[in-house]
């Protein structure tokens, strides 16, 4: 049996795998049994520094040589270093570390519940197109039918509103609203950004009704949008922020971060996880955050603009095929028009470029933040050739 047959025999068939055997990764490229591929979706936003980053590797090896796991009964140097760096880049005061994005969202829901400790003020709001994860709390906030069908019932008291609709927001929030969860740039939903006027309305309604604002920066964090977190593009009174994906330099770590006043909600035993803040993941995270801060975040901004401009030129040339180009930094969405999305992905694959589709007709670009102009040009040429053919 080859690897594909074995996978089919042993695994629940929850993932669509690419027909590739990856031998190694280097920078923005994957070396496979079918040749060298430019990876334009970078481990779905995890591989912010591409593959095989030397500093991250050294940090991992150095930590493994000390210990690869300690329970959270111990103080851990790498956790502290990681927390200090992450909080300072993010602008929050308190942190809880877990391993995946969805866990961080669950932690945020618990923190909201504990904060209000009320039978009535516990309604939650999220937005259509938003994606927050696959465990029950986060899936209750996630709106897409495809992910929810068959898994009911979900948490009660969750309202799904139209993203960027101030009217919908005004109509729904009231004294019982405990929290509003949103991605300031929706990833899975097709790379849509929150309007400034919508964020202003959110701030205003928060003042009136006293709910918390929770930013899901799991995909739109780690410097991807040209700022460390997407919320840094806005003036928003965010109480809790969750982030994950790229912050661990490829290892699983996620963070629930909050303002100081929420510290009083969680006491010993209120929340916990065995692997959260794993020392190797935190050591990798410290190295990754240093790289993000020193050059990758800036590069995401400049190359992101370069790539976006290149795509806008193509949109001008092929307006029937490219309907929209949106997003910030290296989190870009290309809305396709008169093109069959899956065929375009295949054509790009033939040209050794890997892209990911989301929301049916949107090509979602989440390349490593170290992408350079030459590699961006490689992508633009392959994209143009593919839509022409
Ligand atoms: C915005 C957002 N929130 C939450 C999640 C869930 O993260 P995880 O898959 O690590 O549980 C994702 C994953 O893609 C995401 O993009």
Question: What's the layout of helices and strands?
Answer:
Elements: H1 3-10, E1 22-26, E2 29-32, E3 35-39, H2 42-45, H3 54-64, H4 77-90, E4 94-98, H5 101-116, E5 123-127, H6 136-141, H7 145-148, E6 158-161, H8 166-172, E7 177-182, E8 185-186, E9 192-193, H9 196-209, E10 212-216, E11 240-243, E12 254-258, H10 279-317, E13 322-328, E14 331-336, H11 341-350, E15 353-354, E16 356-358, E17 362-365, H12 373-388
Parallel strand pairs: 3-15, 5-6, 5-7, 7-10, 10-11
Antiparallel strand pairs: 1-2, 2-3, 4-12, 8-9, 11-12, 13-14, 14-17, 16-17
Helix pairs in contact: 3-10, 4-10, 10-12
Bound molecules: pyridoxal-5'-phosphate.
Residues 100-102, 131-133, 183, 187-188, 216, 218-219, 244 line the site of pyridoxal-5'-phosphate.
Q: What can you see in these coordinates?
A:
This protein is α/β, with parallel strands linked by helices and 389 residues long. The chain folds into two domains: 3-52 and 296-388, Aspartate Aminotransferase, domain 1 (Alpha-Beta Complex), CATH 3.90.1150.10; 54-291, Type I PLP-dependent aspartate aminotransferase-like (Major domain) (Aspartate Aminotransferase, domain 2, 3-Layer(aba) Sandwich). The protein has helices at residues 3-10, 42-45, 54-64, 77-90, 101-116, 136-141, 145-148, 166-172, 196-209, 279-317, 341-350, 373-388, and strands at residues 22-26, 29-32, 35-39, 94-98, 123-127, 158-161, 177-182, 185-186, 192-193, 212-216, 240-243, 254-258, 322-328, 331-336, 353-354, 356-358, 362-365. A seven-stranded mixed β-sheet has the order 4-12-11-10-7-5-6, with helices on both faces. β8 (185-186) and β9 (192-193) form a beta hairpin. The chain is globular and about 60 Å long. The two termini are 35 Å apart. Pyridoxal-5'-phosphate is lined by residues 100-102, 131-133, 183, 187-188, 216, 218-219, 244.
